[in-house]
Amino acid sequence: MNICDRCGSAHAKILLTKGTGQESLCIDCSNEMVSTELGVDLEEQPESIVLKDPKGITRYFKVEQKLFHMGIRLQAEEAIEYGYQFAIHGELDCDQKQLFQELADKVKDGLARQYIEQGIFPNDQAYQTIVDDELVGRIEYNENDPDVPLIIIDGKPYTWEEVGKMMTSYEGFQFHLKIF
Hints:
Pfam families: DUF7685, DUF7686, DUF7713. InterPro entries: DUF7685, DUF7686, DUF7713. With about 180 residues, the protein is α+β, with helices and mostly antiparallel strands. It has helices spanning about 25-40, 95-110, 160-165; strands at about 15-20, 20-25, 50, 60-70, 70-80, 85-90, 115-120, 125-130, 135-140, 150-155, 155-160. The strands form four sheets. It has a four-stranded antiparallel β-sheet with strand order 3-4-5-6, sandwiched between helices. A three-stranded antiparallel β-sheet has the order 9-10-11.
């Protein structure tokens, strides 16, 4: 874990390269540096969002604000490994309270739909199937096999093999893969 060169925090996520030197910064110190450079202040926002998914499971999200030279990013990251992540971007002069509300709405909308249904056949064999012929998720690094990514869907990690197994019922169909 990197240590912030300015405040000593053990949560430095940003590495700045200046000439031949480098500086590790935590989000707070980075935001303070950019705020001073631009004369833009980040408004205080709630630090978390808590919502229930369609199965009634309570989901806890940590909200992080990041000030960039081109705008403001708010990110809600579920407090579990490979959980849900949502982000939204706004202009430097945006209404920051409205930006937070848009993030909260995006989290709510993202939790509202499940893309994989799990069940058990009458012979007690478990199965997973794609709901309404659509999958939405994100691609993550796979520590167990760096050559093949994990696919995070419904806040859970799936291997390419597991996604492929769910797609076998679509043999002969065409598909459209769009990365955004």
